[in-house]
Amino acid sequence: MKKTVLRVLSLVLLVSVLVLTTAGCSAKKQELVIFSWADYIDPELLSEFTANTGIEINYNYFNSEEEMLAKLEATDGGDYDIIIASDYIINIARSEGLLKEINKEKVPNYSNLNEKYLNQYYDPDGKYTIPYVAGTPLIVYNPDRVTCEITGYNSLWDESLKDQVVVMDHMRNVIGFTMKSMGYSLNTEDPEVIAKAGEKLMALKPNIRALDGDTPHEKLISGECTVGYIFTSQVSNVLMECPNFKVVYPEEGMGFGIDSLFMPKNAPHEDAALKFMDFMCEPEISARASIFTQYINCNSAATQYLPEDFLNNQAVNIPADVLGDIEFMEDISTEATEQMNAIWNEFKQS
Amino acid sequence: MTAVPETKKTERRISPAVIPMYIVTVLFVALPMVYVIGITFLMKDEVFGITNQVTLKNYADLFSAVNLKVFADSFVVAISTTVLTLLIGYPFAYFTARFSQKTRSFIILLIMAPFWINSLLRLNGWIILLKANGAINEGLLALGIISEPLKILYNNGAMMLGMVYALLPFMITSIYNSVEKMDWTLIEAARDLGSKPFSAFLRVTLPLTMPGVVAGCVLVFVPSMGLFFISDLLGGSKVLLLGNLIKNEFYQARNWPMGATLSIAMLAFTFVFIIIYKKVTDDKTAGGLK
Fold first, then answer.
1. How many CB atoms lie within 10 A of CB A294?
2. Interchain proximity A224–B131, CB inside 8 Å
3. What residues does A296 pair with on adjacent strands?
4. A282 CA to chain B: closest CA distance, Å?
5. How many CA atoms lie within 13 A of A324 on its CB side?
């Protein structure tokens, strides 16, 4: 009997100590919960933010944005303070009312942002998002081994490129550039256009050496492939390793994407989130974020902090007149997705 | 009348120690399986996830031309992988089992050691060896045997190499186990009774090691239907196997119900094969022993 009492008492003591210490911690420490892809923010920037503000950062990763959206729906826009994701998924989250409006007074550095990247279709009034970085897939090739002239998407079909091309293993991008090569929008939902694009795509298969969305730059650097249609940071990687490679801004127009920061509707630490947004809009910080990710910088005031090799890099510094002809990849109807998926499976299987 | 003692028997066999195992099995195997089967009868939601509208459309879509071709391709790849691993694995396991105990365990250790490393890393090792500026091409170029790097990667051959490499240990260990257990005096008896070495092998060794061969074939065939990262990494994503098709439905088409339906179809397909294998071996082992 005595023993049990002792046991219960010691248990109570233990629990109360635990509760007190954890309660003490949460009262003292401020927290910011970030949700994005792994390694998408320079860890040095995060520790600088913590050093400056005393706010601890809890960085959570997602593998796919669909997974992020599902969690956002499940928690009704709670749990996370800052999410970095791409335009189309933000548009879906906005249509579901999962975003929180940004109090711009608390983000004075917002004025540094380049207007070209503001008020886009996913946030037409610029109320919810802060652009992080932008990007566009580009064609990059080895001029020593490519004999034909490459000007745009249609050049990828050239017979001399047999078994030499790498493009991303991504249905929407590949069918998208096929439709653009025919003069249509990459968001076309017209079944006849999609079917025609499917026929044209099958003719590309003999030229495809590999489909790869993760490490296509390595295939170009190693000499496995001579031409690639790959994402911004990958093009940038190729240029750093092989400066003689040429970049092509496709004449048919470019696909485009902006990844932005936003707060979910019920973000638990709004003040900390606003501080983080302001921090990321500081010119020098923004410049470092672009250098880390190797994507296009969206901050007008950051240019002076960008090193020369970054400014000379054709993948991340695209002339303004070229960048005019861009198109965002938007979410399309279920019917169009299903039709594209059937084409994509047939393309890969052939 | 016979039912009474039987129930008593089963009652005695259930010990409280197995209850956690049953709970784990029900929670983490049976329930997810029910969930997967459940969503095969539902519709894809506009953006993401599923709606509660019941349909049989997914099962009808299974029989589209592309899906049937992918099934056929995967089947051919799985059968080829099984045959190749068997052709390499059987002699390997047979001769390994004839070494001394010490050498044997060392060889088996060497077979198992790579399993301690993630298979993706091991496949990337192959890429480093085989790529255009990799060790093999650089070596051949330096020796003057070739003037242009060979295109070894990103074709069916490279993919088959990866499949055989990844699954060979399953075949070797299964066959090794049954060869090791075999009673060699039976072969001596066959030889004493005038059998030629090859005929002794065919009529004594092979039937006796059949359980190992069959276990190895099942262990290789079943996963080779579903592996997707080998055709992605070494085949350059140009070969669409069942595993890739399922992954594609979930990741790119965001069609969970279709992905689930394909998974169930794959499961049914492999299940049929396991049953056939079982039937075949039961007869053979019985025949061999008698």
1. 21
2. yes
3. A134
4. 35
5. 3
Determine the average pLDDT of the residues in B115-144. 92
Please answer yes or no on whether B240 and A337 come within 8 Å at the CB atom: no
Per-residue pLDDT, B46: 72
Mean pLDDT of all residues in chain B?
Answer: 87
Determine the CATH number of domain A138-230+324-349: 3.40.190.10
Cβ burial, residue B156 (10 Å; 0-12/13-18/19+): middle
Name the average pLDDT for chain A. 91
* Per-residue pLDDT tens digits for A262-294: 999 999 999 999 999 999 999 999 999 999 999
Six token digits for residue B130: 């085989």
**Considering chain A, what percentage of its residues have pLDDT values greater than 90?**
82
Read off the pLDDT band of A25 (50, 70, 90): very low
* ipTM for the predicted complex: 0.82
- Give A303-340 pLDDT, tens digit per residue: 999 999 999 999 999 998 888 789 999 999 989 998 99
Q: Is A82 left (phi over 0), alpha (psi -120 to 50) or beta?
A: beta
Cα Rg, chain A, nearest whole Å: 24
Would you give the DSSP letter of residue A44? H
Token reading at A80: 């996370």
Instruction: Give the separation between CA A219 and CA B134, rounded to whole angstroms.
Output: 11
Q: Rounded to whole angstroms, what are the CA distances from A286 to A37, A42, A159, A299, B100?
A: 18, 11, 43, 7, 66
Domain ranges of chain A: 2-132+259-318, 138-230+324-349
CB contacts, 8 Å: A205 with chain B: 238
Chain A window 98-117: which residues touch B at a Cβ cutoff of 8 Å? Answer: none
CA distance B290 to B269: 32
* Closest partner CB to B238 (pick from A342, A345, A348): A348
**Residues of A in Cβ contact (< 8 Å) with B246:** none
Q: Which CATH architecture has domain A2-132+259-318?
A: 3-Layer(aba) Sandwich (3.40)
How far is residue A43's CA from residue A58's CA, in Å, rounded to a whole number? 12
Q: Identify the CATH assignment for B17-289 out of 1.40.20.10, 1.10.3720.10, 3.40.50.920, 3.10.180.10.
A: 1.10.3720.10
Q: Which of B132, B154, B253 faces A341 most closely, judged by CB atoms?
A: B253
Residue A201, C-beta contacts closer than 8 angstroms, at least 6 positions apart: A174, A175, A178, A343, A347
